[in-house]
Amino acid sequence: MPRDILIIGSGMAGLTAYHILNKSGFHCLMLEKARGVGGRMTHRRHELGGYDHGTSSFKVSAPIFKDFLENFVSEGILELHEGWATPKPAGNALAKALSPSGDDFLPQAHVVDVELTDDLVRLTDAQGAVHEGTKLLITCPMPQAKALLGQYWDAHWPHADHVSYRPVLTMMLALEKPQDGNELARLMGAGDATIIWESDKPERAEGHRLVVHFDEDATLPFLQTDLKEIARHMSGILEDAGVELLNIQAHRWLYAHTKSAMAGEMLAHQSLPIWVAGDGFGLDGVETAFLSAHAAALDIIEGSDPHPDGKG
Ligand SMILES: Cc1cc2nc3c(=O)[nH]c(=O)nc-3n(C[C@H](O)[C@H](O)[C@H](O)COP(=O)(O)OP(=O)(O)OC[C@H]3O[C@@H](n4cnc5c(N)ncnc54)[C@H](O)[C@@H]3O)c2cc1C
Questions:
Q1: Domains plus CATH for the chain?
Q2: 134 Cβ partners below 8 Å, 6+ apart?
Q3: Which pTM was predicted?
């Protein structure tokens, strides 16, 4: 049976929309190309303790966002300090807490085609499975949303093409002993890097683990390089300098941070059942993704008949 709403993406935007729509009685299906929820709010497990290689902590300034997070703070899933939230015990803790239950979530479902019929949205994933619903909310970064919507990308949305993102090369390091993070970043040629120590965060495993996010200029030469090759290259540089590494890994984000955003909160199609939300509508990362999805969910609810068996 077709779902009321199909949601593509399980980052902060998709999870927020699901939470609101599900509570209002809509039957949603969330399709996610990765194995788990979180999108860029993610965590890489490792025997030495793991790394938050995407968002580590995020700003909370809008009262509506603060209200939404209140329960998670009191449940100990988030630490909120001076307007910054840090998930515990790992960067994906909030995403996990917001995760859809049971068969409302479909992991490893990479949507490759969108088709609209008279009254249905039909999505095809990379395995060839077809998923039907009456409305569609897309929450992937704007260039991916545009590519996916193809002919349905609305001519009324020209400014959406101006949204751009900054790529980030992320190196994850576990060290035998403490070391100057700035010096490690300098050795790797990370530019004006962001350095985050896992051990500085609440409830993290013991150990000297850090994540180094390269700046854009330092990332660009590595856009095509194999990640294992990057790790080998950096490991050689650091070991030559006498750094004792226990572990080194690389990850590349093509769409890490919004560089130029779009005005407004979300996109709604003039005549088709399509909404687009996510962090392309502001420069505040997770908070923007929340506010955008919140606006999209309310817009969907406003324009819909109440569901007969609403879960309220
Ligand atoms: C290294 C790094 C550091 C960051 N630091 C901060 C920070 O300090 N503070 C802050 O606020 N923000 C930060 N951000 C940005 C923040 O993570 C994002 O703005 C926010 O998480 C975006 O949420 P979203 O739901 O809009 O998108 P995403 O989290 O990208 O979610 C989109 C989801 O869609 C899925 N998807 C895409 N295409 C398809 C498809 N075809 N089929 C199925 N699924 C698909 C993706 O796998 C993904 O899970 C950082 C990001 C990175 C990468």
A1: 3-37+99-163+261-302 (3.50.50.60), 164-259 (3.90.660.10)
A2: 2, 3, 4, 5, 119, 120, 121, 273
A3: 0.96
